[in-house]
Fold this sequence. Notes:
- The strands form 3 sheets. The chain has an 8-stranded mixed β-sheet, with helices on one face. It has a 5-stranded mixed β-sheet with strand order 9-10-13-11-12.
- Helix 6 (about 155-175) runs antiparallel to helix 7.
- The chain starts with a helix and ends with a helix.
- About 35% of the residues lie in helices and about 25% in strands.
- The protein has helices at about 1-10, 15-30, 60-65, 90-95, 150, 155-175, 200-210, 215-220, 260-270, 310-330; strands spanning about 35-40, 45-50, 100-105, 115-120, 125-130, 135-140, 180-185, 185-190, 220-230, 230-240, 250-255, 255-260, 285-290, 295, 305-310.
- It is elongated, with a radius of gyration of 21 Å.
- The chain is built from 10 helices and 15 strands.
- The chain is of the alpha+beta class.
- The chain binds adenosine-5'-diphosphate and magnesium ion.
Amino acid sequence: PQLANQIAAGEVVERPASVVKELVENALDAGASKVEVDIDRGGHKRILIRDNGKGIDKEQLTLALSRHATSKIANIDDLEAISSLGFRGEALASISSVSRLTMTSKPAEQNEAWSAMAEGLAMNVDIKPAAHPNGTSVDVVDLFFNTPARRKFLRAEKTEFNHIETLIKRIALSRPDVSFILKHNQKVIKKYRAHSETLGVVEQKSKRIAEVINTSFIDSASVFTSKYEQVSIAVWIKAPELCVSVNPAQYSFVNGRMMRDKLIQHAIRQAYGQLLHPEQLPEYVIFIELPANEVDVNVHPAKHEVRFHHARLLHDLIVKTIKDALDSFQM
Ligand code: ADP
Ligand code: MG
């Protein structure tokens, strides 16, 4: 099973940013309202994620570092309707097989904290008492120390950190209710505070979009929401005359997960139609919510791809919503 972990690690753990992705998703799955991401040297040296989520108890801690330890699938039916972000139960085991990983946790109902450490392909998980507030920390040191080929593929610290920063922006957009802090080499690079749901979803999301993208995007965008049966769409779309031709802001989320999906991109471009010159690119943030069984998100382990069951219908719904949003610029 140890070798299997390392093979799986090749799929899940491409680079520091993929480690950060898995660990932040775990923190969110644990219900954290506060997540801190602390990176040293682009993640080559260290990736430390702290959360204030529900924690993991002493018994489960060792198990979590072993393969297929997911606590998120109660029965086989759940496979059909996966709502939590992770479900494979192999991220932690995979990451620890290519690093020195320490996970420390204190669930609120447990009096003391425990810390489990696993290193590379060693079979044993070392567990001992620790000091830690309610929540969980995962500390990943010396990524790829035992897989030189992969280590060689790491890019400059700055490049790897840029990937992490991009990832954190995307996750932050999807969760305006959670506060995030991103540090690099002890310096705070990004700080997003939590926005309450009592603001209303549009206002709450607008505030986070302003922080992550910029306030001028929000000021020059039209917001539109639509609902058709069980599908809801909220879109922030930029006025066509302000759309740029390089580095456009383009973010799409399906059930809270960031996607670069062809169908969504196509629908948005089609909705703009003649309003854009060929060299201009649409700028948008779009959130699509639909029943979990209407979409397959696990086409690939790293979960970049998605398949919609009623693709045509969804496509047309996106086109219509965006056209309505664009119409509001004409008024
Ligand atoms: P998965 O997320 O697919 O279940 P992981 O390997 O990422 O698999 O995590 C294994 C298990 O460890 C999770 O199911 C969860 O029970 C526990 N776990 C991981 N990270 C955290 C965290 N930050 N807080 C609480 N529990 C966690
Ligand atoms: Mg996970």
